[in-house]
């Protein structure tokens, strides 16, 4: 099944298709992770994107029942140098090709992923399309140039109805902008009583649940496209502790008057160093985002920068000067990736307990 990847900038890569035999288009990005392709494929933050894996061999340990980050994959497609047809792992249940066929996903293998990654690093993120070998290349390029990047992806991946993950500890409302199951896992491991709500839930509706804390999840796309998020966050600030991750971090920034911008090629992988400005300690983090908070725009807000990325010095963490609210751009639940930043969930628990104790004493 010969296929080719065509970029809007005119580059063409010839390879072999795997998974479902269909043409797909989306935003082409790259991920530097050496493992964790199953978590990546099922991460809702990749909604509308075709992901190029920089590590050359993908699929060697198969697909298992435990490593999903969502029930329904939102990724558009996958680009790899070599796809493994015969995985070897005691947990493996399907090959990557078998999984893609069952989920009606498409991919392309056998292309020069190093060259593609260099193109994306030099020119920035571009639109691309995986097509059949005989497709008209000029027509595809012209079509891509006239196609807009996807918008409102959060609406596509957020839960439509609220649901509970019961626990006997603190009550946390998790606002689902495309939440990974890893966030829910970390909260339930700490015995939190978690209520997961849709991205369009209002502050008034959340306060009726009487939570001890609010978790704003990761998610795909431009944070400025998430309608109503700023109003909801401002309606909760000071009334209940808030912890934001990735998109949730950006939304806190926007709600407090900061601005966001699109990175040239984003941060995607499990080996990104982040500096904690308070402790001067460096954590190796898992990241997946194409936007960042503009540091200059923080000057006239009640937010203070707490972390920066060492690779490009962009913002990686915020804390509110007045209210119990903090956020990070990276993924402390690290699915997949290092667990250096896992302690942030414990800090969230302490913040909720202190706020609750202070509230009761008053």
TrEMBL record:
Catalytic activity: L-glutamine + H2O = L-glutamate + NH4(+); hydrogencarbonate + L-glutamine + 2 ATP + H2O = carbamoyl phosphate + L-glutamate + 2 ADP + phosphate + 2 H(+)
Active site (catalytic residues): 246 (nucleophile), 331, 333
Binding-site positions, L-glutamine: 45, 219, 221, 247, 250, 288, 290-291
Region (CPSase): 1-170
Coiled coil: none
Function: Small subunit of the glutamine-dependent carbamoyl phosphate synthetase (CPSase). CPSase catalyzes the formation of carbamoyl phosphate from the ammonia moiety of glutamine, carbonate, and phosphate donated by ATP, constituting the first step of 2 biosynthetic pathways, one leading to arginine and/or urea and the other to pyrimidine nucleotides. The small subunit (glutamine amidotransferase) binds and cleaves glutamine to supply the large subunit with the substrate ammonia.
Quaternary state and interactors: Composed of two chains; the small (or glutamine) chain promotes the hydrolysis of glutamine to ammonia, which is used by the large (or ammonia) chain to synthesize carbamoyl phosphate. Tetramer of heterodimers (alpha,beta)4.
Name this polypeptide is given: Carbamoyl phosphate synthase small chain
Species of origin: Frigoriflavimonas asaccharolytica
Organism lineage string: Bacteria, Pseudomonadati, Bacteroidota, Flavobacteriia, Flavobacteriales
Encoding gene (name): carA
